[in-house]
């Protein structure tokens, strides 16, 4: 008799999720060869992450931003507004380079959806930036310094009534939404719904319906792409994402400047807000993994890099809730996939305080020999191939860098060859050099 999920250990849950990912339900493979290739790739990645045994060779990721778009000859604007063109570009990229794991085709996102909602947090191709470049984050204070108590008291209500109207122009009137927890008796119930009868609110609801239709169209296109590529033998390595609570405040709510000031002026409220956000971030990641049967949850780390915080600040503000989120994911069998963007060299001794074989770290600008001796003793590490080198270097320079990474990191398993940061531009022969040399040289004897 099979154990129920709640009766399993975290090890058993992780194994169950991996098996769902390795043998996906409902997928009809294009051929026996495609099924064999898919399972070999997925198992190779699993073995590297669990650090239980060396796979046949070092797994390979190629993790782009808009590179597949440029590589196929279309513009970022084309990719964001024409989902067929976007999918064709990412399909060509995956088939041509044939990495063991891919990120899917969702990086560009649905331009029309952002347009309908009048999204303020980003500028995107043709809307604030050139049609030929990637989207850009618009740094700002979308939560004011005196609003921590509102977030802490009722985060859902704060997001609905305060945050969303500030980042989506189409929802500006949502500030008039009633607080639904006040609907407790027949008396006065109707009064709570008066705002929904007003023209600005009805315009917002119409925009929501249009945006929902576009989101559904985009989601269907992304799902179809993922299914097609799985059937062809290519595993997707991200089920969804979540964030370190410090980054939710720093990226999403207060902005970098606002948060840095808050750390000095109201540190206790910053910490309390992060504690409130922690279970929300855990549920966000666990829900995406369990619903998809894919164990990997991506975690972009933005404000924890070397230079943003000193070691004392990192230990006080960043690491405690970041670790709690990862441990919450791990408990449910999920594999946290943090991307340590920028340098993380001063953090390596801190972040190694994790259970072995449970996480996958993407390294950007690290001393990889040091990373292997510290974090690499408990976690699978990936990356550190310079995206600048892939774009501006020679083929031989890329081969030399690939060899050094393999020499420093591959011994004993627990390493995945990959670029360290997501890239828009690169020379195709350099990307091929990284992939091809790893296939030849990264074989375990």
Question: Nutshell version of this structure?
Answer:
The chain is α/β, with parallel strands linked by helices. It has helices spanning 10-22, 32-50, 67-72, 76-81, 83-97, 111-117, 148-153, 155-167, 199-231, 245-253, 255-265, 267-292, 311-331, 348-351, 368-373, 387-392, 395-409, 428-441, and strands at residues 122-125, 128-129, 136-137, 240-241, 296-301, 335-340, 360-363, 380-383, 415-416. The longest helix has 33 residues, at 199-231.
Describe the protein:
This protein is α/β, with parallel strands linked by helices and 445 residues long. The chain has a single domain, classed as Alpha-Beta Barrel (TIM Barrel). It is built from 18 helices and nine strands. It has helices at residues 10-22, 32-50, 67-72, 76-81, 83-97, 111-117, 148-153, 155-167, 199-231, 245-253, 255-265, 267-292, 311-331, 348-351, 368-373, 387-392, 395-409, 428-441; strands at 122-125, 128-129, 136-137, 240-241, 296-301, 335-340, 360-363, 380-383, 415-416. The strands form two sheets. The chain has a six-stranded parallel sheet. A three-stranded mixed sheet has the order 2-1-3. It is globular. The two termini are 39 Å apart. The model has no long low-confidence stretch (mean pLDDT 96).
Low-confidence stretches: none
| CATH classification, class level | Alpha Beta
Number of spatially distinct domains: 1
- Shape assignment: globular
Helix content: 40-55%
Oligomer: single chain
Roughly what is the average pLDDT, rounded to an integer?
96
Number of helices: 18
Portion in strands: 5-15%
CA radius of gyration is 23 Å
Number of strands: 9
Question: Main sheet?
Answer: 6 strands, parallel
If classified by CATH, what would the architecture be? Alpha-Beta Barrel
CATH topology call: TIM Barrel
Determine the structural class based on helices, strands and strand pairing: alpha/beta
Strand order of the largest sheet: 4-5-6-7-8-9
How far is it from the N-terminal to the C-terminal residue, by CA?
39 Å
Order of helices and strands: HHHHHHEEEHHHEHHHEHEHEHEHHEH
């Amino acid at each position: 008799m099979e154990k129920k999920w709640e009766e399993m250990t975290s090890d058993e849950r992780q194994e169950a999720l991996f098996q769902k990912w390795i043998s996906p339900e409902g997928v009809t493979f294009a051929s026996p060869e495609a099924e064999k290739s898919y399972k070999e790739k997925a198992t190779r990645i699993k073995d590297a992450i669990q650090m239980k045994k060396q796979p046949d060779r070092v797994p390979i990721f190629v993790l782009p931003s808009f590179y597949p778009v440029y590589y196929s000859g279309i513009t970022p604007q084309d990719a964001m507004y024409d989902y067929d063109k976007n999918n064709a570009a990412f399909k060509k990229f995956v088939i041509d380079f044939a990495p063991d794991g891919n990120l899917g085709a969702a990086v560009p996102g649905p331009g029309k959806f952002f347009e309908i909602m009048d999204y303020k947090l980003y500028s995107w191709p043709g809307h604030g930036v050139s049609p030929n470049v990637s989207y850009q984050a618009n740094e700002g204070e979308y939560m004011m310094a005196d609003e921590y108590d509102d977030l802490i008291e009722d985060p859902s209500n704060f997001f609905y009534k305060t945050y969303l109207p500030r980042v989506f122009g189409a929802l500006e009137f949502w500030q008039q939404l009633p607080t639904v927890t006040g609907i407790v008796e027949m008396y006065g119930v109707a009064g709570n719904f008066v705002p929904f009868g007003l023209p600005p609110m009805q315009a917002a609801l119409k925009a929501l319906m249009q945006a929902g239709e576009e989101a559904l169209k985009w989601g269907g296109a992304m799902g179809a792409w993922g299914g097609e590529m799985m059937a062809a033998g290519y595993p997707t390595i991200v089920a969804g994402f979540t964030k370190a609570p410090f980054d939710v405040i720093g990226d999403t709510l207060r902005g970098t400047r606002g948060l840095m000031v808050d750390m000095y002026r109201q540190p206790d409220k910053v910490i309390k807000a992060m504690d409130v956000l922690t279970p929300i971030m855990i549920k966000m990641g666990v829900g995406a993994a369990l619903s998809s049967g894919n164990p990997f949850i991506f975690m972009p780390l933005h404000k924890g890099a070397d230079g943003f915080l000193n070691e004392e600040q990192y230990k006080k503000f960043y690491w405690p809730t970041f670790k709690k989120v990862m441990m919450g994911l791990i408990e449910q069998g999920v594999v946290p996939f943090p991307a340590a963007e920028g340098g993380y060299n001063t953090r390596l001794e801190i972040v190694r305080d994790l259970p072995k074989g449970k996480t996958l770290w993407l390294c950007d600008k690290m001393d990889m020999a040091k990373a292997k001796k510290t974090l690499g003793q408990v976690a699978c590490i990936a990356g550190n191939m310079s995206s600048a080198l892939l774009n501006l270097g020679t083929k031989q320079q890329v081969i030399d860098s690939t060899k050094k990474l393999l020499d420093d990191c591959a011994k004993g398993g627990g390493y995945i060859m990959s670029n360290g940061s997501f890239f828009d531009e690169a020379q195709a022969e350099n990307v091929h050099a990284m992939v091809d040399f790893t296939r030849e040289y990264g074989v375990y004897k």
